Structure formats: structure tokens, C-alpha cells
Amino acid sequence: MTQDPALTPEDSQAAPLADESKMANLAEFYPAFAQMASEIERERESYKKNEHAYRIYMEKSIVEAMQLALPRNLRLDISLLFKAKSFLSGDFSYASRFANNTNDIYLLWVGDSISHGTGSKIVKDILNDIIQQVYNYSRARQEYSLDAFVKRVQHEFSSPRVVKKILSEDLSDIIPGNDDSSKLAIVIPIVFLQIERIANQTWVRICNRGMPGIVHLRPTRDGAGIEKVFFYTKKDVHRYEGRYPDKVELMDHSGLPLVLDREIYNTYVRNSLKKRGVKVSDAAIQKELFTVVGFRIQPGDILCIPSDGVMESVNRERQEYGLTRFLDEIIDSVLEPGAFTKSLNDFKESYYTKKLRTYTVWNEQYPISGNGIEDDMTVVLLRYR
Q1: Looking at residue 289, which CATH number applies to its domain?
Q2: pLDDT per residue over 172-225, tens digit each?
Q3: What is the reported pTM?
Q4: Which of 167, 187, 191 shows the shortest CA–CA distance to 272?
Q5: What residue numbers bound the domain in which 326 lies?
Q6: 190: closest CA among 69, 293, 78, 307?
Q7: Assigned domain for 271 exists
């Protein structure tokens, strides 16, 4: 094996010239590259600031509207985590108040319209108009049953009049065509809550139609720990395998979401029951759709309503955030020193910045492709004082 001949003094002096030439070329372009990198970094920082400002503005606006409906005799703090995938979000949170002869009833609904964009906003606005009409109808007749309220909302949402109105709109950004098959795509998970003071006690009634669930967190009497966490969800769908098995209890409560067409809706319900091995009967259908659960809350209790965008958010390895991690990190946040003395809004920001955002923060490094999340993320928080 021959070796390369040794370099002569002339060669050794001439050899670096090619490298120097390359370095000169790089030096010529380096300022342009450096400027481009600097602009990208400034854009990223500007995006993060604007995204944060937009999130805070939207949260504040929605919470203020929800607070306006609060009865005076209901001591309830409200906070909201709302991170939209786009400016036309599919998630929504609204509140109204029933005034009867003895007590005011706080009515809250949180939902997740299909997809995002113009079509999603159209469906969301139509549904909320229906809910407002049912609210006015119920108030005029002094009918405050949550069960009857939700039944009427479903009845109106799946009426031929509404089906015709929705399918007459341009929904091309969420479904491929506005024909009868389009009705299959319009399914809206939503949860309704009523909160009312009765005989010096405060009661909550819930009807969950397809949302991940409702958390009822009860602190210990001294406010230093957690006595119990009840999560109202569909037990045959969700499981908890976290760090607090002695604290967390899954409560079986969740119906099917709102569906646009009545015929399709009835088929949808029956198929869901059959798939889960439940015998189809009128009683089973009613339980699947309109079951209302009630429970009493005490001072310090926290109610938490997440959207599926929170549960289904993913990290770099495409692992879902999930129910177990969500409950564990909410509990971790409550158990942090000073958590019970924080405002509910500070508690929410602490949970978001230290927990949820660190799980999905990698997405926010790419402002050009949007804010990096795959779905709107909503967490409604209520604390009874």
C-alpha cells in the first residue's frame, strides 16, 4: 500500500488557499444567514407574545360574559384556559341565568363544534342560537328541568328546519359536500351544568353529551390536601392508571353528543349501544342520551371541564396527554404549596405554564405553520367559595 508523497514547502503553503477561498465565500454570505436567523428568531418571539396576548384577551372576554350571568347569591369564581388552533375556533363556553320565585339558577354549557374555520363557526352559532331560544322558551314557562332543557335542544338541533339551514351553508372547509351524507359529519360534544342554591346548600346538575368528562375536586377541610376527586365520564371508554388511585374515582356518566339529523341520530344511538353490548331499549336510549346527575358542592370545591383538545394533545413522540396525565397534573397543581390561597386564575396559569404547555410546547417553535396545536384546547374552571 503506497502512501501519499510528503508535501513540499510550496504545497504546504498552497494547500490552505482552497479552504481560505471557501471561508471567504462563507464570510460573504454569513451576514445574510445571520440576518435571516435573527429575523426568524424575532418572528418566533413576536408570535409567542402575540399568541399569549390573544389567549389572555379571549379568556378574559369569555369569562367576563360568563360572570355577568352569575346570580348574586352564588359565590363562584370562574377561570378559563382557552388556546385556539385558529382564529375561528370550534370550542365554545357560554352561560345564562334562570330567575325563579325562590332562587336563581346558573346555566353553563361548554362544547366542541366540529373542526375549525368558517363552517365550524356557522354550526356553532346556529347551535348557540337554538340553545338561547330553548332558554327563552323555558324561562317564559318557568320550566327549569335540565333533562327537559337538553331534550328540547336536541329536538330543535335535529329538526328538518335546522338541517336545511345548516346544509344550505358553505361547509366545504369541514365536510366534503353539502348533501345528505354531510349530516353524518355534524356531531357536537357538549356538556350542560346547572348550579343552584337550595335551602342553604349549593347543588350542581350535569348532563354530559360526549365531552371527555367533568372533574369534581373536593379539598380536605383544612384546605391543605385533597379528600376526593370525582371524574364523571364514560367508564367503559376511559380508565385512570395514575399516581392517586385512592383519591380518584370515575363516575359513570356521559351520553352521546348532539347529532344533526333525527333518523341518523336514532341509528347512531342504537349502533353505539349494540357496539358496547348494551341491550337496545327505550330505557337504555333515554339513559344514553339524557341522564342528569346531581351532587352537592362545598366551599373550596373545584369543578373542571376539559375539551378533547386537551386530552388528545400530543408531544414530540406523538404520545397523547390523556386522561391519567390530565388528572394527575391537575391534582399536582392543587397540591402545590400556596395553591389554595391563589386566585383561580393564577392557579389556571400555573397549571398551563408548568404542566400542559410543557407537554406541547415544542409545537410552538414553528410559528409559520400556525400555533402548533392540532385542536382547540379549553379548560373551564369553577371554584365555590
Answers
A1: 3.60.40.10
A2: 555 544 445 455 557 788 999 999 988 889 999 999 988 999 999 999 887 778
A3: 0.79
A4: 187
A5: 53-384
A6: 307
A7: yes
